[in-house]
Design the sequence.
């Protein structure tokens, strides 16, 4: 799928190619726990962290801060 382009790049390994410099998820979401329901590859955010589901029902988080 291409967003802002005709399709994914030939040399790239991903199936999604965005010809843009910003990506946006409108709504914040905080997984209740590190074992909350989720599928590998999902990600979400809140005011303090970015969360990534690394395998079924297994979330990891990284702190974010202003600079």
Sequence:
């Amino acid at each position: 799928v291409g967003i802002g382009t005709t399709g994914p790049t030939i040399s790239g390994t991903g199936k999604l190619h965005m010809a843009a410099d910003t990506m946006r998820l409108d709504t914040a979401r905080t997984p209740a726990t590190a074992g909350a329901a989720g599928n590998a590859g999902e990600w979400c955010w809140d005011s303090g962290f970015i969360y990534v589901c690394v395998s079924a029902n297994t979330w990891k988080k990284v702190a974010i801060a202003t600079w």
Notes: The radius of gyration is 15 Å.
